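Why run this: before we spend reagent on co-expression, it is cheaper to look at a predicted model of the complex and decide which construct boundaries make sense. The entries below are exactly what would go into the expression plan.
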Amino acid sequence: DQQVKQNSPSLSVQEGRISILNCDYTNSMFDYFLWYKKYPAEGPTFLISISSIKDKNEDGRFTVFLNKSAKHLSLHIVPSQPGDSAVYFCAASPYNTDKLIFGTGTRLQVFP
Amino acid sequence: ETGVTQTPRHLVMGMTNKKSLKCEQHLGHNAMYWYKQSAKKPLELMFVYNFKEQTENNSVPSRFSPECPNSSHLFLHLHTLQPEDSALYLCASSPLERTGANVLTFGAGSRLTVL
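The model came back. Tokens follow.
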């Protein structure tokens, strides 16, 4: 049973526009949600996180929104840049554990 | 060396071989992890070690045997693997004492092919 789902395997966005990546989860017992970015031949790198008691966290061009009632979070990148082209993973951590549970990833392509 | 280093980066082995993957972190973290990434699947947590003690075994087959001799080193011993075990194996580390999210730092991974 997949607890963290990313239903869009890919997304293509023009440079300068907004990229919106979505993630759904099924478990109410997550206390943090994280986004990671992965380039080919590299490991995932941490991008931004949000606590379950917040509904928004912003860091430069990246903003994560959390809708607990819908069990949904999204990552907004604005403006999108070609260097943002990568696979983006949503992850969630259950309370009082060291685990991170990942989604399948969304491949973002930003074209000029 | 900085961050999390994994060796080898690529490994091809037969089903009867015995090999090991190595991970080393230079971040002073106390927790280390093995994840498996297969095509079109989520990153799957395999093992978690806290202060060298295994705290999580996510129903991993016994043909995968982890070893954590100290907080900086983590191994994954492989024997009698199957072709479906071919995947990218990612090592990660994180600090146990933290405020906020448990941010894992990943290595670049070891690409394993089982023939």
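The mean pLDDT of chain B is 92. The two ends of chain B are 32 Å apart (CA to CA). Bring this page to Monday's planning discussion.
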